[in-house]
C-alpha cells in the first residue's frame, strides 16, 4: 500500500536502462566490428570454397569436398550490412552527424560503408544468385523481402560503387582495420571491384561488361597499382583474432586439410616457387604430395600428404586477401584478350605472375623469369584464356570463393567433380542453397525465386553463369 | 503413553464397574484399507456415556446389561449406529462419508479449497503417489501422474534436471511452469522431496490467474510438512540407498573394427626415420589408428599392432595382439552409481506453536566415472500463535549442491563421452588400455593417434582423459523462504503480511588440463539471482444462511535482480595446469551482467457458494511491469469460473456418488525480460587496440505490449459406486494473444531475430483423469490413476510480415531462470544443414522440413495418377540409392496423446506401486542413429544380406545392402545392391527422413514394494511407524517403436536428440521410521 500511495504505479524511473550494453554508438567501433565480420567473405571455417576450387582436399572427413549439405547461412553478412547502414545513418542524421565526424568526414565514412556494403552484396549474389537487395535490410519495415534478380543487383552495384567512390575526399577514417583508414585505397578497391564485376558478365552480357570495365578503368583514383594496395584481412597473434587455420591445425591439432593433388600436380612439374610457400612437405614422404580430391573414404593417412604451409598460410597471424594486385592484372589481361580494352595481354599476364610471387615473398627475378619463360606457363595467345584462368586459380590461392566463382565463369582450370559426390547432380556446385530461414520464414518469396531462378539446388546456375 | 492409557482405562473401568452391568470392547477399522482408526468417538446412544478409540483403534465401554445402541462417528467418515444386542465384542468397519467427502486442494495464494468448489482444473498428487521411488527431484517424480503434464526426463546420468510442460506446447515459448513452495516462487530443483506434504498442479490461466504474469505456463503449488499435535517423540527418519546403472545402449556391431577399409595396413620400416630396433616390425599388421569409424577389418583374431603398442614407454610396446571384438567396451566404461539419501525431521505442535526441522543429505556418484554430486537441504517451518489472534510464521529452506563433472548430452562441450562412443569410436577397443590415460612422461594418450610414428592424440581425447583431466565443478546454493504475520480481526476477517525471498548463488569452474586435445583453459562464473516478494492479503470468509462468501484482496511487490560475472582464459594457460585467470595467455574473455526488474500488483477474488451446490469465483489482477515500455506497462486480467455439484440434487444411491460440471474463462498477462525495449550497442571482442561495437542482431521493440492469454475451460467430474470410480474430463482452448516472443526472422531483413507481440497462438486440448479402486476387500485393494491428454497448438496469426516460427531457436529462457532449468535447450542443430522445425501459420505445429525420400506414384500414358500397389513406396535411383527431394515438409512432431498409469496394490501390510507413462504418436529426429550408422558402429550396418553374404563385402562379390522397401523409378521392385559403407556414410547420412522415428513408447518409471510394520508389532518398540521398501526408478522401456537402443522418453529436445546420455536404471531400498 505504501508504494501505491507514494508513487505512480507505472513509473519505474530508469530501471529498464540496460547497464550491460552501451547506449552510445561509435562509428569507428562499428566499422571495426563490421570489417572483422567481413573476413568471413573470403572463405568459411569449413574451407568449403577452397575445397570446391580444389586448392585443398580434405584428408579424412570429406563431407564438404563431396558437396554434402546445401543450405548456407548468410545472416552474419546481412547483419553486418545493418551495422554499416547504421554508420551511414549516424553520418546522415542531423542529430548525430557532427559527433560522427570525430572518426572522419561524414562523406568518407558514408562512402566506405557503402563500398563495403556493395562488396558484401556482390559476394552474396555471386554465391546464391538472386538475393534480397532492394527490399533487404528494412527490419520491422519488412521482415520478408523479395528476391531481386542477379542482373538487377549487378546493375545497381555498378552504380553504387561508382557513386560511393566519388564521395571520397582523400581524408582518413578511424576504425578501418582493412585499409588503415586510407580513402585513396578504398577508391582503388571500389574501382577494382567494378573490374572484377564487369568481367563476370563476359558470358552473359559482354557489351555491358565491357562498358562497365572501361568506365571503371577511367574512374578517379585508379585501381590497385601494387601489392601494397592489396585489400587484405590481417589476422593477429592473439587468440581472439587469429587465423582460422591456425586454430584448426595448431590449437586443435587437427589435420583436416592438405593441398590438393590437382594443385600439386599442376604446380610441381613446373617448379612453381609458390608451392613451397603454399604447402609443407609430407612428413613421411618428405616431398610435396597432393591429397586426391573428393573421395568418399580416401584411406590416406595425414603424414603422407602435404599440409598447408605452417608459416605463410596457417601461422596465428597469417593474412587472407579480399582482392589482390595480381588478381586485377589477370582481370585486365583477360579483358584485353576479350577485346574490351587495349593493351598487351602478355605484359599483364607476366606482371600478374610476378606480383603473385611477390605477394608470397618470392622476389628472385631469375627464378620468376625462368618460371614464366617455360613451356606451359609462357604466354601463348592461342591458349591465353586457359593460361590466364589457370594462373588466376593459383594467384587466388585461399581466396576460395573467388577461385570457385571464376571457375564457374570460365571452367578454368578443368576440374573433375569429386568422385564421392553426395549431391544429386554429382557435379561441382554452381551456387549455394539459400538459408533455411528464407525457406521456412520467407516462404512466399522463396517459392517465387525458386520458380524464376530454378530449383534451390547446387545444380542451378546463377544469371552470369552460362554453359560453355 | 500406552501405560498411562491402560492405567486410565483401568481406573475408568473400575470407577464405573459398580454402577454398570457389563463392559463391551471392540475395534474400529477403515473399510478402505483395514487400518485401525484412532480417535473415533464411540457413544452410547441417548447418553453422554462414551469414549474414543486408542491408537490401535480399540475401545472399551461400560454399557447397561442389555440392549443399547453404539453411535460411532468421526469427521469425514460415515457415522454408524450398531445394535449391541448381547455381544461383548463389537468390531466396526467405518467407511468414508460420500456426502461429507471433502477433498481439499491448495489453490492460488495458498488458499485451501474444497475441490468440489473449483471451477477449473487442478490436480493434486498426494505425497504417497508422488514419492513412489524416492526420486530426489520432484519434477521427475511427476512423470505420468497428472493429465496434461509432460516431464521431459533427462538421463539420470546428469543428476536429474528435467523440464516440465503443462498442457504441452501451450505457448510457443515453451516455458517452464511456476513453482510455488509455501507461497514463495522458487526453483523446483532445490525443493526437498522429503518435505513435501501436497503438490497441486494448476493447469491453465483459470487456475493460476492470481499468481500473475509468470503463471501462463501453469503453476505447481507445493505445501511442505508442518509440525502437528501428535503422540511420540516427533522424529522421522527416511533413508534410501539406490544403485544406478545404464539401462539402455545403442545396438553396436561387433564384427568389424576401426578403419575405413577391410584390409589391414602393413607397417613399412624406413631406416631413414625409424629406429633400427623397429626393423623387426616391418610387415606387421596395422590399422588406420587415425580413423574414428569402424569400417575397418573383420575382427577375426588376426594379429595386429594395437595403438598402445607403438608408445615406446608402454609395457606392451612392440607386442601384437589378436584383432578381436570387445562387445562390452562401451558398457564397461560406465560405473554403477550409488546414491545415499538420508533425511531426518523433527516436528512438534501444540496449542500455540507448530515447528518442524528437516535435514536431508544426498550423496551420489554418477554412472560416468569421476562424476559425483553432494546435496544438503536444511529447512524449518515455524508457526507461533502469539495471541489468540496474532500468528507469526517463518519458513526457511537452504540447500547446497556440489557437482563434479555433470555430464552433458551432445557431441561437444563439457564431459561428453557418450557422444564419442556413438559417433567416433573403434569397436575393437579395449578399455583397460584406455584407463591409463597418461603415459609415464605425463603426456596424454588416446586410441586416436596419427600413426606408429606419431602417437600424440589426433582428433579425440581418450574418454578417461575427458573425465579426469577436463573437470567441471559447480556449486549451487539456494535460500528461500518467508516471514509473515497473520492477524485475525474477527472470525471472518484475516489480515496478513508476508515478505519472501528466493536467493541463489551459482558458481561454476571449468578446467581443461594442458596437453589434452582441447586448449588448456580455465573459466569461472558467478551467478547470483534474487527475487523478493512483499505481499499483503485481506481475507474474508463468512456464511450468510445458504450463501457463503470468501473474498480476498491483496497486493504484491516483486523485485528481481541478477548479477553475473564470467571470466575465462584465452589462448591457453601461460603456466601449465595453473588454473587462474592470471595465467591467460591472451586477453581473457570477461563478461559482467546485471539485470533488474520489478512488478507491482493488486489483486482480488470473490467466491460465492449456494448450499455447497453452486459455486461462482471471480478474480481480478493488475500488474505494472518495469520491463515493458512506459505507457503500456500496466495490464489487467480477470477470471470467472463456476462449478455446479448436480449430484446434490440427486437422491443418494449406490451407483452415482458425485457429479459436478465446471467451466471457466480466464486471462493472464505476461511481460518480458528487462532491457528488451531500447536499442543498445554491444561491445564485442576488440581487434588489437580497436574497440568493436555492434547493433543487436535481435531487433528490439519499443512498441511492445503485454501479452494476454485467454483460456476457456470446461469439465465434468463424476464418481460412481461409493466413489470407487471417478472420472475427470477437461477440455480447453487457450488463445495466447500478443505473446512476447523472440522470433527468428529472415536474416535478409538485416536482423536474425525480432522481439514481437505474436498475434495469436491457439492451443486446444482434452485431459482425462480416471481414479478407480477396482478391487477392495479387507485385506486386498487395487487402486489406479490413469491419465491421458491430447494437446494441439496452432499459429493463428503471428506478426505483421511474418507467418512462420522457427522452433529451433525458440527456447527463450528468462534471464532470471535458474541455470538448472536451462538444460532444455539441447535442440540438435547437427541434424544436418537443411533440417529445421517450424510452426507455420495455419498448419500443424512442429513441421520438420528437410530432405525427404521420394515415393512412387504410378501414372498412365497421359501422366495421370493411377492406382498401383507400389504407390507410396520409397524410390531408388539407377544406382540403388534412395531418391530424395530437398527442402520438403517431412512430418509433424506432436504426439497423438500421452499420459500415464499409476497403480497401487495393497495386501495387508504390503503395498506395491507401479507407475508408467506413455506417448502415442509423434516424431523425433535421432542424430545418434545417424552417426551410429554413418561411422559403422551400429548393428544395422553388419550382418548378411538377403543373399546370405556379409553386407560389408563388395557388391561385386555378392555383398552390399538392398534397400528392400523401395521400388525403382519404373515401379518394379528394387533389386540393386549398394555398397554398405557408401550407403551409411554418405547416401543416408543427412538424409533427414531416414532418421526420423516414432516417439511412441511405454516406459515403466517407478516401482515401489513396501512393507508397513503393523502397529501390533511395533507396540513393544519405541517406533511409531516403520516401513521398508524396495524401490526402482526407470526400470525399463516396456515398448518403444524406435527400438535400437534409443530412449524416446529422454530425448534432449521436443523433436530430436543427438548424443544423448544413456538412460539410467536405479534400484535400491528405502527405510522409514518415526518415533
Give the SSE map:
The complex is a heterodimer of chains A (468) and B (1075).
Chain A: H1 2-6, H2 27-38, H3 48-52, E1 56-58, H4 75-90, H5 94-100, H6 106-128, H7 150-167, H8 183-200, H9 206-217, E2 231-233, H10 244-251, E3 257-259, H11 261-267, H12 274-278, E4 320-323, H13 325-337, H14 345-359, H15 365-373, H16 384-395, H17 400-410, H18 436-441, H19 443-453
Antiparallel strand pairs in A: 1-3, 2-4
Helix pairs in contact in A: 2-4, 2-6, 4-6, 6-7, 6-8, 7-8, 8-9, 8-13, 13-14, 13-16, 14-16, 16-17
Chain B: H1 2-17, E1 22-30, E2 41-44, E3 50-52, E4 58-63, E5 69-73, E6 80-83, E7 92-94, E8 104-106, E9 112-114, E10 122-126, H2 127-130, H3 138-141, E11 149-152, E12 163-166, E13 178-181, E14 184-186, E15 196-202, H4 205-208, E16 219-224, E17 235-246, E18 265-266, E19 285-286, E20 303-304, E21 321-322, H5 329-333, E22 337-349, E23 353-365, E24 372-385, E25 390-404, H6 418-423, H7 431-435, E26 449-451, E27 454-457, H8 463-469, E28 470-490, E29 493-512, E30 521-544, E31 547-573, E32 584-610, E33 614-625, E34 634-644, E35 656-670, E36 682-687, E37 690-694, E38 698-699, E39 707-720, E40 725-744, E41 753-776, E42 780-797, E43 804-806, E44 836-840, E45 847-853, E46 874-876, E47 884-892, E48 897-907, E49 910-920, E50 923-926, H9 927-934, E51 961-962, E52 966-968, E53 977-978, H10 980-987, E54 996-998, E55 1001-1012, H11 1015-1018, E56 1025-1040, E57 1056-1057, E58 1064-1074
Parallel strand pairs in B: 1-7, 13-16, 38-41, 46-52, 50-57
Antiparallel strand pairs in B: 1-4, 2-3, 2-5, 5-6, 8-9, 10-15, 11-12, 13-14, 15-16, 17-22, 17-58, 18-19, 20-21, 22-23, 23-24, 24-25, 25-28, 26-27, 28-29, 29-30, 30-31, 31-32, 32-33, 33-34, 34-35, 35-39, 36-37, 39-40, 40-41, 41-42, 42-48, 43-44, 44-45, 45-47, 48-49, 49-55, 50-54, 51-53, 55-56, 56-58
